[in-house]
Structures are given as structure tokens and as C-alpha cells.
Specification:
The protein has 150 residues and is α+β, with helices and mostly antiparallel strands. 20% of the residues lie in helices and 37% in strands.
Length: 150
């Protein structure tokens, strides 16, 4: 394993009318096939290298821009302002270390559209989420977001 290579992933807990969007991963996915999660995806260098730099040597707000794009591509939805929830790290089944940056946002428009990566969707309350086979940690993140609402 090359310890210098890793993925950076951003995910979003989308909220609408007191419910949270969860999505079932395709059985073809390498990591967590067939389990329920929240939308998001890897941040690629192409997410910013084709854009003008914000300063002479940096790009700002890459995670936000990439996450909005990923949510739109994976779900068909637009999201509002992003609130940071947490970060976590894990080693994928293929050995690649991965950092996940988790955010929460209110739904702001669009219609759900299943695709090759996310094959089903559900808007759930915190209690309803317990009935789904969620990726480990997703339920706890939903709880954190719920607690922040109060």
C-alpha cells in the first residue's frame, strides 16, 4: 500500500421537511456494496485544476463546489448552505486510505433520480433510519445533525 496516496471524499446529509435523505449503494460498488448511505463522492484534482486559482497558488472552496456537484450528479438535487458535521478516516477494502468530510444541508430543489451508483432513495426520520442497513457511522452522523437542530 502506498501510504502517500489516499482519497478525499465529501458527503452530505440532506434535510427536507424534518427528514433525511439516505441512498442505497449499488451492489457493484467496491466499498460498502448494497448498504445505505448519504450522497457524496471523491474529490478529484480535476475538480479544481481546470479553474482559475483563488490566490496566486491556491483554490478555495473546492470541497463545497465538488460536494454540490456530486450531490447533483448522484441524486438530481440541489442543496443549500453547508454545515460541517465531522471528519473520519478508514481503509477501503482495496487498501486505499480514505478521509471523509461530512456536511449537512437543507434540500433546495430538484427531483430524485436513481443512477448506477445510488439505486434507491428514502426520506427518513431518525427512528425510520434504524430500519435500514446503513454504513457504520451514518446513523450516528444523523443523530449529531438532529441534536444540532434542537
Amino acid at each position: 500500500m502506498d501510504t502517500k496516496s489516499h482519497y478525499v471524499v465529501a458527503t452530505c446529509i440532506v434535510k427536507k421537511d424534518g427528514k433525511y435523505l439516505i441512498a442505497k449503494r449499488s451492489d457493484k460498488e467496491k466499498a460498502f456494496p448494497g448498504l445505505w448511505t448519504v450522497p457524496g463522492g471523491k474529490i478529484e484534482t480535476t475538480d479544481y485544476t481546470h479553474l482559475p486559482k483563488t490566490t496566486s497558488s491556491h483554490w478555495y472552496n473546492v470541497v463545497e463546489r465538488s460536494l454540490r456537484r456530486e450531490v447533483k450528479e448522484e441524486t438530481g438535487l440541489d442543496i443549500g448552505a453547508l454545515d460541517f458535521v465531522c471528519d473520519l478516516f478508514f481503509i477501503r477494502p482495496d487498501g486505499v486510505p480514505t478521509m471523509i468530510l461530512s456536511y449537512a444541508s437543507e434540500y433546495s430543489g430538484g427531483d430524485l433520480t436513481p443512477n448506477d451508483e445510488l439505486v434507491e432513495f428514502a426520506w427518513v426520520s431518525l427512528d425510520e433510519a434504524k430500519k435500514y442497513s446503513l454504513i457504520e457511522g451514518i446513523y450516528e452522523e444523523l443523530e449529531w445533525v438532529e441534536k444540532r437542530k434542537k
